[in-house]
From TrEMBL:
<protein>
    <submittedName>
        <fullName>8-oxo-dGTP diphosphatase YtkD</fullName>
    </submittedName>
</protein>
<dbReference type="InterPro" id="IPR000086">
    <property type="entry name" value="NUDIX_hydrolase_dom"/>
</dbReference>
<dbReference type="Pfam" id="PF00293">
    <property type="entry name" value="NUDIX"/>
</dbReference>
<dbReference type="InterPro" id="IPR015797">
    <property type="entry name" value="NUDIX_hydrolase-like_dom_sf"/>
</dbReference>
<feature type="domain" description="Nudix hydrolase">
    <location>
        <begin position="1"/>
        <end position="95"/>
    </location>
</feature>
<keyword id="KW-0378">Hydrolase</keyword>
<comment type="similarity">
    <text>Belongs to the Nudix hydrolase family.</text>
</comment>
<dbReference type="InterPro" id="IPR020084">
    <property type="entry name" value="NUDIX_hydrolase_CS"/>
</dbReference>
<dbReference type="InterPro" id="IPR020476">
    <property type="entry name" value="Nudix_hydrolase"/>
</dbReference>
<dbReference type="GO" id="GO:0016787">
    <property type="term" value="F:hydrolase activity"/>
</dbReference>
Amino acid sequence: MYDLPGGFVDPNESLEQAAVREIKEELGLSIHSLTYVHSYSNTYQYKTVEYKTCDCFFIVKLNQKPTVIAQDDVAEVQWVNRYHTVYFYINSTSH
């Protein structure tokens, strides 16, 4: 199953700070500039609990393709064309 990096916002943390932290934790990648794209309400099932969430999407521009190593709860990293990311949106809203 494919997914985008992400997670929950910690107390006293902005949405942008959370995105930067999650990218660092999951991919070991330091990013510095984010552009907000879109957000929508969703649900996140964890074991027997259903959480109401707000999924937020950002664009990050990189000068070059970095070497990324899967960390945290990531098994594998795969680069995809930015136009194919709509798949992740559709997949996320379909459950």
